[in-house]
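Notes, p. 3: input format for complexes.
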Amino acid sequence: MDSSSTGRPATPDALTRRRLLRIAGTAGLAAAAGVACQAPAGYGKNTTTNPTAPTSATAAPAAPPPSPAPAPPLPPTTHPLLCRDAWGANPPQPGGKPNPLSRMTIHHTAVTLGDNSNAPARLRQHQQYHQGSQGWIDIAYHVSVDRDGNLYELRDPNIVGDTATSYDPTGHFLVVCEGNFDEEEVTEAQLDGAALAFAWAATRFGIPTDTLTGHRDQSGDTACPGTNLYSHVTSGDLKRRIDALLAQGPVELVSVCGPEGTQTVADIEAGIR
Ligand SMILES: [Zn+2]
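Output follows (273 residues plus zinc ion):
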């Protein structure tokens, strides 16, 4: 609830639908590959002979039980992340504080989304308001999720976010769901998208999922993230979704940039994806 921008209609250009997000399969594999190099517990024990120890031809030490084969690394769950350039972000202003990431917090924009095709335009409006009227270096949050579960790259998570309320966002990874959830319902796709963003933060930065809170838990002067979204925090539903993803292995976000990203956002704005 850090924005008060108002909506304007997106331009529904008629654009051919393209399926652009099939590139995810390989990008996360390198991140998981290091796991395969870990030795199983007990590996390397009892494999050398101490030359000073008494020996006996009749009392050979018992061979250690065979070590179990190490479990193969779990394949990463991958999901596209639409680049800043794809949704038409302005560059960040210089400055900002390094963010010692240790917590995760969910927000809404408190601006009614209406049709999901409005989502990219909303982001541009939020950023203009945050950089202009608020005087912040960038849009306040780190990742945005629209109603269909599309993820958008916002502020660098390694830079502390901003807020117009009374808490200090230092250390927080900030996910914002587009919409006003005192007036609109949150969809399964948007909840799953938020869970993916948080699971990525847990994978990438080691943030514990039991630190998840809603903005209103941090600051008494906001209703953010809105009743209909906050209920998924208090019920534990959102944390369960994050933990379920992480139980399947690491979560990687695959950046979709350049013409592919631009086309994907154009399709979202045209209402065809
Ligand atoms: Zn908030």
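DSSP finds eight helices and seven strands in the chain.
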